[in-house]
Amino acid sequence: MGTSAGTLDSPDADAKIRCSDRSRAAALSPIGTAGTQDGFVLVEMPLPWPRDVGRTPEGVALAPLLAPRRHRLQAVVPADPAAPPQERGVILHSRPPGPGFNGYRRLRGRVGASLTATVAALLEAAADPAPSEFDAPGVDVLVCTHGTRDSCCGRRGAALAVRAADVPGAEVRRTSHLGGHRFAPTFLVLPQGTAWGYADPELVTKVVRREVPFGEVAEHYRGCTGLDGPQVQALELEVLRKVGWSLLDVPRTGTFDGTWADLSWREDGQTVIWAADVRAGRAVPMPRCMEPATPDGGSETEWDVTAVYRCQ
């Protein structure tokens, strides 16, 4: 995946190594690092963004609305930088009510006179299964380019966003921190909620258009943000290897207990269940970006998935 392990041999290089270079050198698996969210609110905010967009006036105003609903704020670069603040776009991806996950509902509005009022209206519409004037089907590809949060995303993510800007069938947007900067460049596909790492423009196209068998992109998969917990995300990866892209289209539910994970959905009037043993695997030393590895530094744990089988 690019950087060779030899890059880490020099003490001088080690003191300045980027986290994404270290991850590539260690062939660190990204699966299970997607996080879990019931929704995302995309708000157009001009650059530069602070390290934490939650500390912006927009973030502070929206926190009481979003935190209880487990919705995440994502700043995105305005589509029209010259547009006045009230004309900037707001997109909500919100998990529909009911069990199972096969994608968020996408709604769209404008900031208008009050960003808080606009987001509240979008959330209210999303909670009602009836059609809404805000419904706006479409695909958003969010590429993390948040350089003030992590230099790897600032360098690699910004380059990816430029090179992948014209991917057919999706709107590619530069966004704030998505997590997983050690796998930079990273991107998130909404409404399907799939997160990816070690990306390049070809990967973005393959994922959006599903042009290749899932197995060809499996090593880039971080997991689905609509599934709870890294263990279930790790199991889903193995099921995707066997079932293919169509799995992302069915409402699926995952659970984890002890070391046992399962993933289930309805198919032809019956419940399909896949299960596996999922345990913590290799722990890879992973200090902060541009800092040397130390004995008491941080680490990243991979997930070992074994005994995968279909129960029903």
Automatic annotation (TrEMBL):
It comes from the Bacteria. Pfam families: Suc_Fer-like. InterPro entries: Aim32/Apd1-like, Thioredoxin-like_sf. This is Sucrase ferredoxin. It comes from Actinocorallia longicatena.
